[in-house]
Amino acid sequence: MTAGSGQPVADSGRLPVTSIPGIRCLLPAEGLTTLVPQTTPLPDVGGLERTELEALLEAAGIEPYRARQIFRWVFARGVTDFGLMTDLSKPLRARLPELFRISRPAIVGEDRSSDGTAKLLLELDDRRRIESVFIPDSPGDTFCISTQVGCAMKCAFCLTGRMGLTRHLTAGEIAGQVRALTARLCLLDARFNIVLMGMGEPLHNYDETMKALRILGDADGLAVPERRVTISTVGVVPAIERLATEPYMPNLAVSLHATTEAQRDLLVPLNRKYSIAEVIDACRRFPVARRSRITFEYVMLAGVNDSPEDARRLVSLLGGIRAKVNLIPLNEAAGIPFSRPSDARVNAFARILADRRLTVSVRKSRGRDIRAACGQLIVEGSQESTGQKLAAAMDT
Ligand code: SAH
């Protein structure tokens, strides 16, 4: 389904004409209307927590409870134009665009896989592009969303890592992917899961990622419960420790991929900073919700980490942790110097884990024909960028 069918006139995702970025209409004392260039854009409702919106409304002399109404329109009903918010008075509808904008990534491309998976190309306000993936499934559909333009982690088998990091996404851009996808796919009322497994390392962009999750979790907005959200991390130990103290506690998935430090140093460069031992230790301390488990992702690379010895080492590494293992047979791509093991090899590995009572699943690679599967998200033509330097500076 495409945008517009059955939805309240959701626009193309572009700004409403009443809030042209960079230009604001001011009324000087002598009563003349002047267009004055404005350096800071208006606050974006799509990137504000409800409490922030309440405070900004109050500062402008507007009743703070209006924030709930606005949240319902923007998040639960997918509206991007204040003029359509019919339970607000006409004067308020006219005033809000002078104070705020409602931005949303624009969908500029869509690929559909034969299995129903959709890979969407989204353009941000600065014209940079990211990818988000919709995976239809039962019992719940899943949105796989990005947290960065590119990624600084450079895992040896991941195409996104090849791009390097261009920049972090803002909370509005992270949450905005869900708004854009729900509107495009007419899923506003549907229940869905969110996995932060698109482009980027969510815990390298901690504050904006967590803010986005709080926005998406707001009861007056999309109300996505924390149990339906999974953060996947390569193992940024201090950030895992910080996550352990959050009131909004999503599920945790850790990309382990190896069972010895030497092997992981090669596959996941961040291991040289936060070793397997430290990552596992942080997981042992992580407060796993009742009836829940930490997922350990394990990309299977033929002849590299797929032996029975690897499987047995994995079992002993995870001993005592409420863990489940998700085996991801490599999604091959040109330029990735590894190959996918045979199904028999994957099954033999899984059998060793299962025989030792470890919960194990083998990830179906959805959308491989459109390069929407794990590690295949990359925006073609992207250049190595200043973001590389930014990443280096932040990784202190
Ligand atoms: N930065 C996060 C999210 C990355 S994408 C993380 O590292 O967890 C989600 C998963 O896809 C990760 O486990 C990642 O290692 C895996 N992945 C990356 N490239 C892959 C590939 N080519 N084939 C299969 N899985 C891959």
Key structural traits:
about 400 residues; alpha/beta; two-stranded antiparallel ribbon; 12 helices; 14 strands; about 20% strand; disordered N terminus; disordered C terminus; binds S-adenosyl-L-homocysteine
Q: How many helical elements? A: 12
Q: What small molecules are bound in this structure?
A: S-adenosyl-L-homocysteine
Low-pLDDT stretches: 1-36, 381-396
Q: How far do the termini sit from each other? A: 45 Å
Structural class: alpha/beta
Return Rg in Å: 22 Å
Strand order of the largest sheet: 3-4-5-6-9-10-11-12-13-14
User: Looking at the structure, what is the overall shape?
Assistant: elongated
Oligomer: single chain
Q: Helix share of residues?
A: 25-40%
Strand content: 15-25%
Number of strands: 14
Give the helices and strands as they follow along the chain: EEHHHEEEEEHEHEHEHEHHEHEHEH
Major β-sheet annotation: 10 strands, mixed
Q: pLDDT average, as an integer? A: 86
What report would you give on this structure?
With 396 residues, the chain is α/β, with parallel strands linked by helices. The chain is 30% helix and 18% strand. The protein is built from 12 helices and 14 strands. It has a 10-stranded mixed sheet with strand order 3-4-5-6-9-10-11-12-13-14, with helices on one face. The chain has a two-stranded antiparallel sheet with strand order 1-2. A two-stranded antiparallel ribbon has the order 7-8. α5 crosses α6, α7 runs parallel beside α9 (276-285) and α10 runs parallel beside α11. The protein binds S-adenosyl-L-homocysteine (SAH). Residues 153, 155, 157-158, 197, 201, 232-234, 255, 297, 299, 328, 330-331, 336, 374-375 line the site of S-adenosyl-L-homocysteine (SAH).
